[in-house]
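Here is an idea for our session: we take a single protein and study its fold together. Which protein we use is up to you, so please pick one and set it down. Once you have written the record down, we can walk along the chain together:
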Amino acid sequence: MKIASFNINGVKARMPRLLEWLDETKPDVACLQEIKSSDETFPGDAFHEIGYRAIWHGQKGFNGVAILQRGEDAPHEVMRGLPGDDEDAHSRYIEADVKGVRVVCIYLPNGNPVPGPKFDYKLAWMQRLRTRMAELFAAEIPAVVIGDFNVIPEDKDVWSPDAMAADALMQPESRNAYFRLLHDGWIDAIDLHNPRGGMWTFWDYQAGAWQRDHGFRIDHALLSPDLADRLLSCGIDKEYRGREKASDHVPVWIEVRD
C-alpha cells in the first residue's frame, strides 16, 4: 500500500496539478494539507470522478486537511480535530482507518514569529499531538502520522542552517518536541532511508528558492514500529515542484506491505 502526503496550498487553485499527480502516481491513500476550503465547498466530486473517495476537515481560506482513498470505499473516519483544547478552531487534524492502517493527517502550526503567541500555540499543539500519538502507540495500532510538521529536524534537512536559524521551524523547542516523538518510539521514514539528509520537501516562492535549490524538509511520515517493519520504500516526488502553478511543497510517500 502506498500512502502519500501533499501540502497542496489551496485545493482549488492547484486542482489541475493535484489531479495530475494522483493520476500519474496513483497512491492508495493521499493525505492533503492546506486545502483552504470550507467543508461545504471541498471538491469531493472531482476526486470521486477519478476513483478516489475522500473525507475532510475544512476551514474557509485557511488550513484544512483531507484523506483520500483509491477505490470504492471511503476512509473510515476516527477523529477530526486534535483533542486537548476545546477552543482550538483550526482544522489541522484528521484520523482514519484505511485497510488496517491508522492514517493520521496533520498540518502542524508554523509558529512564526518567534517569540509570540503563534509560537506558543505551535508548542502546545505539538504536546497535544504527542499525547494522542502516545495513545495510538499504547494501543499497538499500525499507524502513520503524516503531513506538514513545520519542523526542520536537523541541520542536514535544510539548505542553509544559518539562513533559517531565527525561524520557528528550527528553534530548539520545535526540534526538541519533534525528537520527543521519535524517542517515544516513532520512526521517521524519510530519515531512515536517507540518513545523510538533503531531501527537501519545500521551496519558497520568493527569491528564486526553487531555481537555486534553497529548500528544506518539513513534510514527514512517522511510523509506528509495527508499520515500520513493513516499510518497503519511501521518497519524495520532487519534479512536481517545477511544474506550472505548483504548490510550494512536494509530495512525500511511503510504501508498506499489506
User: Anything to note?
Assistant: Residues 117-138 form the longest helix (22 residues). The chain has a mean pLDDT of 98. The two ends are 6 Å apart (CA to CA).
